[in-house]
Write a structure and sequence with these properties.
Blueprint: E1 5-8, H1 14-22, H2 39-51, E2 54-61, E3 64-72, E4 82-89, H3 98-112, E5 117-123, H4 127-135, E6 139-149, E7 155-163
C-alpha cells in the first residue's frame, strides 16, 4: 500500500500541482470553478493562502502530489463563519483512504479556525466522494440542476453538502 504525507501547500508546489491537475479527469475539475491546470490559478491560490483566505494541503508520495484539499473562507463576507472544502485525489489513489485523510486534516484546520459550517460542492455522479462526505456527517442542502457544463458542453447537476461542527452564532 502506497504511503502519503500530508503537508501545507507551498510555493514550491506550483509546477507539481499543475502536473497533478493535468493528470485528473476533466470531470473532476468541474466543481472547482477554476482550472488548476492554469499557472495564474495556482498563483491566485498561493496569494489567497498568503492573505489567510485559504488553507491549502497537499498529499505527496515519493515526491509526487497525489491529492490536495483546501479550506476556502471569505473573512470579509456575511458568510465569514462558513468554510468551503475542496478535495481532489489522483484516480489511482481513490479508495485507499487518502481522501478521508485529507478531509480529516482540513476539518481539523476548520476547527482551529472556528468555522461554524462547512460546505462542499460536487457533481451528482461523484458517488464515491459523496459517500466519503456523508460518512463524516455532511448532508445535502441543495441540488442545482444543470449548473455546470463539461468540456463537451454537457450539463451536470451540482450538489452542495454541509456539515455543522459547531452551532452558528
Amino acid at each position: 500500500m502506497p504511503q502519503h504525507r500530508i503537508r501545507r501547500f507551498e510555493e514550491r508546489d506550483r509546477l507539481p500541482m499543475q502536473a497533478f491537475a493535468r493528470g485528473l479527469p476533466e470531470h473532476d475539475l468541474l466543481f472547482l470553478g477554476r482550472d488548476l491546470r492554469q499557472p495564474r490559478v495556482i498563483a491566485a491560490w498561493l496569494a489567497a493562502i498568503a492573505d489567510g483566505w485559504i488553507d491549502g494541503l497537499v498529499a505527496e508520495d515519493e515526491g509526487a502530489l497525489v491529492g490536495t484539499a483546501a479550506l476556502v473562507r471569505d473573512p470579509l463576507s456575511w458568510s465569514a463563519h462558513v468554510g468551503e472544502i475542496r478535495l481532489l485525489v489522483a484516480p489511482d489513489r481513490r479508495g485507499s483512504g487518502l481522501g478521508g485523510d485529507l478531509l480529516q486534516a482540513v476539518m481539523q484546520i476548520a476547527d482551529a479556525r472556528d468555522v461554524a459550517k462547512l460546505t462542499v460542492a460536487m457533481t451528482a455522479d461523484q458517488t464515491g466522494t459523496l459517500a466519503l462526505f456523508e460518512g463524516l456527517g455532511f448532508v445535502a442542502e441543495a441540488r442545482l440542476c444543470d449548473h455546470v457544463r463539461d468540456g463537451a458542453g454537457r450539463a451536470h447537476d451540482l450538489l452542495v453538502l454541509a456539515h455543522r461542527p459547531r452551532p452558528t452564532a
